[in-house]
Amino acid sequence: MNVLLCYINTLNRFYDISTVEVGQHFYWQIWDFQVHAQVLITSWVVTTILLISTILVVRNPQTIPTSAQNFFEYVLEFIRDVSKTQIGEEYGPWVSFIGTLFLFIFVSNWSWAIFPWKIIKLLHGELVAPINDINTTVALALITSVAYFYAGISKKGLAYFGKYIQPTPILLPINIVEDITKPLSLSFRLFRNILADELVVIVLISLVPLVVPIPVMFLGLFTSGIQALIFATLVAAYIGESMEGHH
């Protein structure tokens, strides 16, 4: 009963987190639901950029790679190495999933650093990069949760749930809470770091609008890539842990 109450409380916290607002928001009213339209718009833009770039590169691969083809091949090899290191020899089926998360976060972060979404004026609210909204990071984290539960169950079947009573049944509540809080940790880590970088740039631009923000924005490009790498590595580590068992 205590474990069930803890799980319900955690879900309630996720709902409360989804109501967090930073800046001005543009909403679409769909039946009884309010949708953060500015996040959907910028997410579609990022997804379109990724799809078009991939189609252009994959459609006609060259024997002597172009710079774009070199970039995608480098990213693929990089994600393969990360996946193999964290998951092991069964990493193959998970490369596309981990790579998609990495590229979406990477392009989302760089789109904000390179293109200032907020200069596009809306009737209400303002455009922001997808990762600058807690709803996006929570959604990515919940997708990750589904992935590592699926990875463990698909490999071990119902025996997967035996890890919750290892090394002793006394640890059952702690092991359950650990799995439940993983998405919370992932979503807050990514959202907090990206938001902090944005606030630093905004403050510096308001204080010294010409010189100081430029190197900080270049630093933001670097940290944005690091955040995408950290998220992808943690996702791979969680999947590898679920497939190998409780450590």
Automatic annotation (TrEMBL):
Membrane topology: Multi-pass membrane protein
Coiled-coil features, chain-numbered ranges: none
Pfam families reported for this sequence: ATP-synt_A
Transport keyword on record: yes
Compartment(s) of residence: Membrane; Plastid
Cellular component GO terms, alphabetical: plastid; proton-transporting ATP synthase complex
Keyword Ligase: no
Gene Ontology terms for molecular function: proton transmembrane transporter activity
GO biological process terms, semicolon-separated: proton motive force-driven ATP synthesis
Domain of life: Eukaryota
InterPro entries for the chain: ATP_syn_F0_a_bact/chloroplast (IPR045082), ATP_synth_F0_asu (IPR000568), F0_ATP_A_sf (IPR035908)
Keywords noted in UniProt: ATP synthesis, CF(0), Hydrogen ion transport, Ion transport, Membrane, Thylakoid, Transmembrane, Transmembrane helix, Transport
Subcellular location, principal: membrane
Residue intervals passing through the bilayer: 35-58, 94-114, 134-153, 194-212
Family: Belongs to the ATPase A chain family.
Matching NCBIfam families: ATP_synt_6_or_A
The name this protein goes by in its record: ATP synthase subunit a, chloroplastic
